[in-house]
Every structure is written in C-alpha cells, then in structure tokens.
Amino acid sequence: MLQQCLENVRKNAPLIHNITNYVTVNDVANILLACGGSPIMADDQEEVEEITSICGGLNINIGTLNHNTIFSMILAGKKSNELGHKVVLDPVGAGASKLRTETALRLMREVKFDVIRGNISEIKTLANGSGNTNGVDANIADVVTEENLEETIAFVKAFAKRVGSIIAITGAIDLVSDGDTCYAIRNGRKEMGRITGTGCQLSGMMTAYLVANPESILEAATASICAMGLAGEIAYNRMQEGDGNSTYRNRIIDAIYNMTAEELASAAKIERR
After folding, report:
1. Are the CB atoms for 60 and 71 separated by under 8 Å?
2. Residue 138: pLDDT above 60?
3. Which of 57, 110, 164, 244 is most buried per CB count within 10 Å?
C-alpha cells in the first residue's frame, strides 16, 4: 500500500495548486518537488479558478489568513469540486481567533474536502464549532496519548463520518480515518515541532499523494503522513554537532527527496484500528 502510493507520486508528478500561508510557502514548494510533485502558488481571485483548472489538486491552508484570500479559497475550492479535483484543508490555528474558526467552518460548508488535516485542537474546534488552541499548536490538554487513544479514535471516526471527509490528525500519534477505518501512525520526532511548517509541508505533499492515488485516498493520506514522520526520523539521525533547526528542516526535505518506496514500506510504524 505505502510503497505503491509513493511510486505513483514519482510516476505521475502531480501539479498541485497551493493557497497557503506566506510563512512556509517556499518550504511547501520544495517538499512537493522533493516528493515528486510539482507546485504552483496562486491566491489572487482574478486567477485562482484558471490556475486550479490546470492542476490535479488544491491545498488550502489558512495559516496567514486575510479577507482577500478567503474569497479566493472559496472560488478555487468550488472550481476544484466542479472539476472533480482532490482538495485538502489545513485549518491552521482554528480556535485561536474568531476569523480563523469562522473561515474554516465556512470553507467546510461551501467546499467539499477530500481530507481535512490538522492538529487535535484544530480538528476538535471544527467538530464543536468553537475551541481553543495554543496559537497554531495543539492545546496540551488535547494531545493524543496512549491513554486516550481509543477515545480519540472513536471521535475521529465519528467526525469523519459526519462531514464526509477523511480526517487526519497529526501529532505524537497520528490518526487518519474515513469514518470506518482508522490508521494510527507512530513515526516522527518531537523535534519536528521546533520547525515552522512541517504541517504545512505535509498538507501540500498529502495533496500530491491523493492526486496520484485517486482510487485509494485513505491509504494515500496515510502514506504521506508516514513519509513525513519517517523523514523526520532520518533527518534527525543525520544531524551533526552544531546543526540546528534550520539544518533539520533542510534534512527533512532531503530525506523526502531520497526516500525509496521500499524504505517507506519497511520503516512505517502503522496500525489499523
């Protein structure tokens, strides 16, 4: 499953339209190139429908939200739905402000998303209609642990079934569910949280995996999360004395670039629940 998903991305080189935040836009472009995809960034309402029409998938990220791009996100999302393209929502910071929360909920009403990917606090905010996050990070009280894993899996399955989208929660333990099946993933390093943008990069890369594997999008979303977590492990093991989080970011991108399908399949720590 994982092996084929990665191979399909490299074989098909999907073109992905990203309306993403300007803090991490360069890293999103580079991770897409590293995994075998191709990025295009466009957020002006005068061109988003045209741009998204030539792409295979759309990645919407609300990390640096403003009123100009909200309408662009809706236009691009509706056009992607019309064309049958894969669409991912990354509700960065939902729960941190009224604007972010209301925009994420509006996007969910007006656009059909194949996958909604966020941390546990962001996803709980969308499920409940309100919530609290620690800026763009998960609230410590919400963190997924072995102790609350069963309860969280039940929540993820129920929410996925309710909204008709795959829900992907990333953190110390990653969870991906379509409402019936849930995959728990334990790849990754805590140091990945010291870099701005690993989640944003994952959402872009995940969109490429969905486009390249349209008949198995639950498995594709899962494979992309495994790949990102494994890259974090590989990159950390290659750190040298004097290296810091800037080097770690680059090593993660390099690990994605050099990752083989066999390596992903053998090193993924995945459990079906």
Report:
1. no
2. no
3. 57
